[in-house]
Amino acid sequence: MTLEMTGKTMSFPASHTGRTLRRTLASGMTAAILVLGTTGLATPASAATADCPSGYSCFWGDTGYRTDSVENRLVRFYQCYRDLETATWSGTSSAANDRASSVSNKGQHDPAYYYVDARYRGLFFPLPYGSGDGNLGDSSGNAPASFNDKISSARFASFDTDCE
Predict the structure, then answer these.
(1) Distance CA 98, CA 96 (A)
(2) What end-to-end distance do the CA atoms of the chain give, in Å?
(3) Bigger pLDDT: 155 or 45?
(4) Spatial separation of the C-alpha atoms in residues 23 and 151, rounded to whole Å
(5) Contact 121, 115 (CB under 8 A)
(6) What is the secondary structure of the chain as a DSSP string?
(7) Which of 46, 75, 106, 118 gets the most CB atoms within 10 Å of its CB?
(8) Which residues have a Cβ under 8 Å from the Cβ of 103 and sit 6 or more positions away?
């Protein structure tokens, strides 16, 4: 059997044809998946975002999906949050506007958009469904670092900018 890859030809003995070759390739693919699965692809820490219910997008005032070192102090929205000027972290009277440092999208199978201005205006970034960013202050996650402590409104992509 002959296999051509990027201009190079490789020959295999007859014993590597058919089922044996498929088994060898399957083993290699399994190993690659296991390596990728353990190398830190950008996904939210599921335990840390447990307080963000399915169907919602949430944000917290500190990195690591916390506010004042408490995981369940968050702001969440189901469709949109037009103006965070009136928002407070759950269980507190502390203002949440322009104070988000971590975000998670457990929403409705579409991206969540986070804006620097109220009423879905100004710069924004999309956060894909099923993802999060535990530190908006750096650029290693799913959002640009320039959004730390600047979010003033948010909505899911399936809701227009007239969402109340």
Answers:
(1) 6
(2) 64
(3) 155
(4) 50
(5) yes
(6) -EEEETTEEEE--GGGSTHHHHHHHHHHHHHHHHHHHTS--S---TTTTTTS-TT-EEEESBTTTBBTTBTT--EEESSEES-GGG-B-TTS--B-TT---EEEE-SSSS-EEEEEETTTEEEEEEE-TT-EES-TTSSSSSS-GGGTT---EEEETTS-TT--
(7) 75
(8) 57, 58, 59, 60, 112, 114, 127, 132, 133, 136, 143, 151
Q: Is a pLDDT exceeding 50 seen at residue 161?
A: yes
**Residue 2, Ramachandran bin (φ over 0: left; ψ between -120 and 50: alpha; else beta):** beta
pLDDT in tens, 27-57: 444 443 333 333 333 444 455 688 899 999 9
- Pairing type for strands 75-77 and 8-11 reads unpaired
Six token digits for residue 133: 């960013």
Average pLDDT of the chain to the nearest whole number: 78
